[in-house]
Structure formats: C-alpha cells, structure tokens
C-alpha cells in the first residue's frame, strides 16, 4: 500500500515540506526544464525551487515543442544556466538592465546535456555561469567536482547575485530540512560511511 503523499511538494504526507517553502518575488523569471527521470526522485530540488518562487515555471519533458513560446516571455532576455567555455559570469542588474529569463535544465549532467542535444533552441541560448567555488550543502551525493550544486542551490545563488542585496536564502530552508530528514532516516553511521565529505553534481 502506498503512503499518502502531499500533492504540492510530492513528499510523503508525514514529511510534507510545504510549511517551509517560501513564496519569494524575483525580478528574474526562472524556467526549469526537468528531465522526466527526476520527477519521482526523493530529492526533487527543482520542484522546491519552482514552488518557492512566484516568478518560476517548471516544465517536465525531453523534447519541448512549445520552447519558442517558453523562451520568449515579453520583457525578458533568455539565458541558459549551464557551463560552457564562453559562459558569461552572472552579475547584479544595473538600473536599466532588462531582467533575465534564467533557463535551468534539471537532471544529472548526462541527462541535462541530452536535453540540450534534443532541443537545439535551448543549446543555442547564450550561457551564464555562477562564480567558481560555491560549496554545496547537498551531503547525499558525490560531486563530479568542487563547485557542483543542486538545482535549488544553483538558482538561489544565481538570484542572490542578480538581485543583490535581496536574500534568497529562504529558498534553501525546505532543501536543508529534506537533507536532514534523509540523513536521519539512514542513520548517522551509514551516512558517514557512504557520504562523509561528499558533494553533488
């Protein structure tokens, strides 16, 4: 028999995170393109980000037929948050800057690259990147390298830069509770053995 589930955060009802999810306004619009394999992942941080931001949209799929519409909301310029040699570092908005539509692929690195491959419009977007050296609070997965963050952390960090001095720290509250809950469920000994010092991709 399946456990009752919260229809909003998709967590088991006994571990619902909705009370911790903020409703933050942002000048930046965030478009999350989620690979279908992530939807039922226990740590669905893209959904937490989409729920916590009023100006955000989460779309699940591999090929997005309505991408031309999604990438062109009036008044925004689209940028892809994804590493590349020519990616421009994010910086705070100037007084006359047009706000960004920050497009964030959500999945493992391999799945995210597949989304770009299957959606040439996405791959053609100018890319932006976060500052080097961000430290993930995601203590449950090994990272492929330093500075690798979970989706919600990457979004919070990007908005923190773009919209300084506004704080987007509340976006990480449900994420941290989620991680703490997962660690508590596995027990400290198992966690230390498998994940001590590990980061995420």
TrEMBL record:
Keywords: S-adenosyl-L-methionine, Transferase, tRNA processing. InterPro entries: DTW, DTWD2/TAPT. Belongs to the TDD superfamily. DTWD2 family. GO terms for molecular function: tRNA-uridine aminocarboxypropyltransferase activity. One of its GO terms (biological process) is tRNA processing. SMART domains: DTW (SM01144). Residues 2-187 form the DTW domain. The keyword DNA repair does not apply. It comes from the Bacteria. Its EC number is 2.5.1.25. It holds the Pfam family DTW. This is tRNA-uridine aminocarboxypropyltransferase.
């Amino acid at each position: 028999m399946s456990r009752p589930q919260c229809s909003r955060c998709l967590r088991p009802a006994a571990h619902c995170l909705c009370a911790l999810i903020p409703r933050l306004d942002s000048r930046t619009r965030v478009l999350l393109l989620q690979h279908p394999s992530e939807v039922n992942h226990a740590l669905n941080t893209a959904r937490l980000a989409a729920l916590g931001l009023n100006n955000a949209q989460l779309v699940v799929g591999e090929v997005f037929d309505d991408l031309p519409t999604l990438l062109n909301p009036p008044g925004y310029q689209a940028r892809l948050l994804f590493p590349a040699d020519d990616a421009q570092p994010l910086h705070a908005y100037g007084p006359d800057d047009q706000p960004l539509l920050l497009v964030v692929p959500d999945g493992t690195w391999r799945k995210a690259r597949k989304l770009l491959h299957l959606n040439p419009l996405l791959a053609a977007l100018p890319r932006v990147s976060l500052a080097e050296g961000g430290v993930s609070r995601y203590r449950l997965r090994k990272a492929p390298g330093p500075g690798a963050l979970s989706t919600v952390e990457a979004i919070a960090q990007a908005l923190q830069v773009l919209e300084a001095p506004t704080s987007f720290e509340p976006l990480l509250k449900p994420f941290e509770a989620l991680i703490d809950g997962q660690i508590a469920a596995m027990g400290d000994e198992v966690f230390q053995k498998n994940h001590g010092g590990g980061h995420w991709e």
